[in-house]
Amino acid sequence: MTTPTATTAVPDAVIDALQGARRVLVLSGAGMSAESGVPTFRDAQTGLWEAFDPTQLATLEAFQMDPPFVWAWYAWRMQLVGAVDPNAGHVALAALAGLREVTISTQNVDDLHERAGSSVAAHLHGSLFEPRCSECDTPYDGEVELPQEPVERLDPPTCPQCEGDVRPGVVWFGETLPEQAVEVTEAAVEALEPGDVVLVIGTSGLVYPAAGYPAMARAEGATVIEINPHESEISDMCHHVVRGPAAEVLAAIVGALR
């Protein structure tokens, strides 16, 4: 039975669940980053790129056909992400890790959790900030030039191992999710016990396998709590739903737990 609240006030049942939890699994999605001002995938398609379908920018085939064009778009996205700060929700989760055993698995490709001080166990859709070689898959840790304004073409870095083009570290359409990220997340779900808590933050509940993890966690006996200003596809199966911005709700939760 879901117990929703229509305001950013956090119900006692949510605080009680977290006070009694040893483990907290955080599943975060695009809504959490949006609160920091990170453009969504489609919002980033402005100016030079607004006429292009996402599949023309976010596939391996597109990159192989025109690496400088695709890389320029992702470099601009990296610049946009770097220009915003973690919000109070990100900061609260970092603080929560000092109070409970916290595991974070995110669908977001930004680095806001990390910049707030959290350790992220899994980036299910990869990361803008973990580029790798498109040929030999070697991680690239060299310098990445980021444009201060949108540019139509920008040569990607060259892999020092094989001289292949370096690609963004995100998951493109048609690609499988990073095996390690999936394994780590599923292991975290399977490790949950009755009394543990799952916080599902800012997700639509539409994209699998991430959309299936809350139900898996509930089957393990964990209490599933959704934090989202909007109803999602998983709202009905959550034990508790808090309708409000993650920045406000998470800050209130951590304040109550201290």
TrEMBL record:
Its main location: cytoplasm. Binds 1 zinc ion per subunit. Residues 3-258 form the Deacetylase sirtuin-type domain. It catalyses: N(6)-succinyl-L-lysyl-[protein] + NAD(+) + H2O = 2''-O-succinyl-ADP-D-ribose + nicotinamide + L-lysyl-[protein]; N(6)-acetyl-L-lysyl-[protein] + NAD(+) + H2O = 2''-O-acetyl-ADP-D-ribose + nicotinamide + L-lysyl-[protein]. NAD(+) binds at residues 107-110, 202-204, 228-230, 246. InterPro entries: DHS-like_NAD/FAD-binding_dom, NAD-dep_sirtuin_deacylases, Sirtuin, Sirtuin_cat_small_dom_sf, Sirtuin_class_III, Ssirtuin_cat_dom. The active site is at 125 (proton acceptor). GO terms for molecular function: histone deacetylase activity, NAD-dependent; NAD+ binding; protein-malonyllysine demalonylase activity; protein-succinyllysine desuccinylase activity; zinc ion binding. The keyword NAD applies. Zn(2+) binds at residues 133, 136, 159, 162. Its cofactor is Zn(2+). Its EC number is 2.3.1.286. GO terms for cellular component: cytoplasm. Keywords: Cytoplasm, Metal-binding, NAD, Transferase, Zinc. The keyword Metal-binding applies. It comes from the Bacteria. Substrate binds at residues 74, 77. It is found in: Cytoplasm. HAMAP family: Sirtuin_ClassIII. Belongs to the sirtuin family. Class III subfamily. NAD-dependent lysine deacetylase and desuccinylase that specifically removes acetyl and succinyl groups on target proteins. Modulates the activities of several proteins which are inactive in their acylated form. 2 residues (Tyr-74 and Arg-77) present in a large hydrophobic pocket are probably involved in substrate specificity. They are important for desuccinylation activity, but dispensable for deacetylation activity. This is NAD-dependent protein deacylase. It comes from Janibacter limosus. The lineage of its organism: Bacteria, Bacillati, Actinomycetota, Actinomycetes, Micrococcales.
